[in-house]
Specification:
The chain is α/β, with parallel strands linked by helices. The protein has 13 helices and twelve strands. It holds the Pfam family Esterase.
Length: 446
């Protein structure tokens, strides 16, 4: 018989039943705790179905997992809630279609349920302290959450995820999602699907393919795990047994800290292709509020930034179109060239025009340029940590009168470039650097 050291509560949020587990330390401190949202009403840890809490609490005691809150969320209909889009039934004997209400369900978890839990319990609400996990279709919708809500859930657990679901692997391949703050745990039993005569027979190879897509998108071994449970079938007893190990990998204390600076610097890339996901201007302002803490001689703080997005991009796009049409020699190509550059600008999710006040003093001007460049680099690292990529473009037309007028650039100001900002659609590989030792001269004698 299990003796649970923590506390279990039945709760309700917006007509959905919740099972809330509070760890042993909850009543012994005033600390805030990480939260893991668990599908299927928390069957993975509910003592009525699983002995996982015994193992989890032992791992708490040994310091292998930080003490955390578990929130089991009861589904309405799991074939609807845990599927990202509609799909026909795959089993003639059951003949029940999949409703594809995953977006609505995840919106409930990310917004209503999380807000309720954060207000009622002592949670640490930050994304890096929030995860989501499930078994089977619950593993599928957890992976979908990684794509749709990477700024809400950063610990993703997909236990025997249903990657056979129609369109899921294709969706992952097309999205090529990467977010440096995510940790993703995947597993599957080696015998899963072996006795099936439908697409579920491909359970193991499709799980491996989904894992490879993520690895090819930029996730490293520190961020992404795939465990093959030899001899295990698609049964809850195997999922329950793997649940504590999944939590340990996702929340390992040694690796739960924010991305190390050295790793962040090495892994950041200039991004030229973006998804259509919008960038939150409030987040950009928040990141820039940190980025401006750059070394700055005499604290001139010569920078300012114009952020354009949505319909606001038309200001830049129209100015560029006019400039390109004016400068095109061939009259027959003027409209085509103008439209090409107009559409190119409009396709960028967000642009940030970087402007510097030009001091008449040469030394101050050089110092100010260096300081503003550091601000841009700081911002690029902070954005990358949030899964946002950018490239710094210094094309000639940023100095043209039409652009300056359109953007309201004042006399005495210099445009240092436009930052193209968005969520990466593709991440280029690293270009080798010359070892620093080859460019450093050490002098220790007069």
């Amino acid at each position: 018989m299990q003796i649970v050291k923590g506390q279990l509560f039945a709760d309700v949020c917006h007509h959905r039943a919740l099972l809330v587990y509070l760890p042993p330390a909850y009543d012994k401190s005033t600390s805030r705790f990480p939260v893991m949202y668990v599908h299927d009403g928390g069957d993975l840890f509910d003592p009525a179905f699983s002995t996982a809490l015994d193992v989890i609490e032992d791992k708490f005691a040994k310091g292998k997992i930080p003490e955390l809150i578990l929130v089991g969320i009861q589904p309405g209909n799991r074939r609807d809630d845990y599927t990202p889009w509609f799909s026909k039934a795959i089993s003639p004997e059951r003949n029940i279609d999949f409703g594809g209400q995953g977006d609505a369900y995840l919106s409930y978890v990310a917004n209503e349920c999380k807000a309720y839990i954060d207000s009622r319990y002592r949670t640490d609400p930050r994304p890096e302290k929030t995860g989501i996990i499930g078994f089977s279709l619950g593993g599928l919708i957890s992976m979908y959450a990684a794509h749709q809500y990477p700024d809400v859930f950063t610990k993703i657990g997909s236990i025997s995820g249903s990657y056979w679901y129609e369109g899921m692997v294709s969706f992952m391949r097309e999205k090529k999602m990467y977010h440096p703050g995510l940790r993703i745990y995947m597993d599957v039993g080696s015998k899963e699907g072996a006795k099936k005569q439908n697409i579920q027979k491909q359970m193991v190879p499709l799980t491996k393919e989904a894992h490879q897509i993520l690895a090819d998108s930029g996730f490293t071994a520190d961020q992404l795990a795939l465990f093959i449970d030899e001899g295990a079938d698609h049964l809850s007893k195997y999922a329950n047994a793997r649940f504590p190990g999944a939590l340990q990998w996702l929340w390992n204390k040694k690796e739960e800290t924010e991305m190390e600076l050295a790793k962040l610097i090495r892994e950041r890339r200039s991004i030229h292709r973006f998804t259509d996901r919008e960038v939150d201007p409030a987040l950009v302002t928040e990141l820039m509020d940190t980025a401006v803490w750059a070394p700055n001689y005499h604290m001139t703080q010569p920078w300012r930034f114009i952020v354009t997005y949505g319909e606001g991009k038309r200001r830049i796009a129209e100015a560029v179109r006019i400039m390109k049409e004016k400068r095109e020699i061939d009259p027959a190509k003027k409209k085509e060239v103008g439209e090409k550059f107009y559409n190119k600008i409009m396709a960028i999710p967000m642009l940030m025009t970087v402007i510097m006040e030009e001091s008449p003093n040469l030394i101050t001007r050089q110092d100010d340029f260096a300081s503003t460049s550091i601000v841009i680099h700081n911002f690029s690292l902070l954005a990358w940590e949030k899964g946002i990529g950018l490239t710094w473009e210094t094309y000639p037309w940023i100095h043209e009168p039409e652009f300056r007028e359109a953007m309201g650039i004042r006399p005495g100001e210099k445009v240092l470039g436009n930052l193209h900002i968005g969520y990466p659609a593709a991440i280029p590989g690293a270009q080798p650097r010359i070892p620093a030792a080859e460019r450093i001269t050490l002098v220790d004698k007069a």
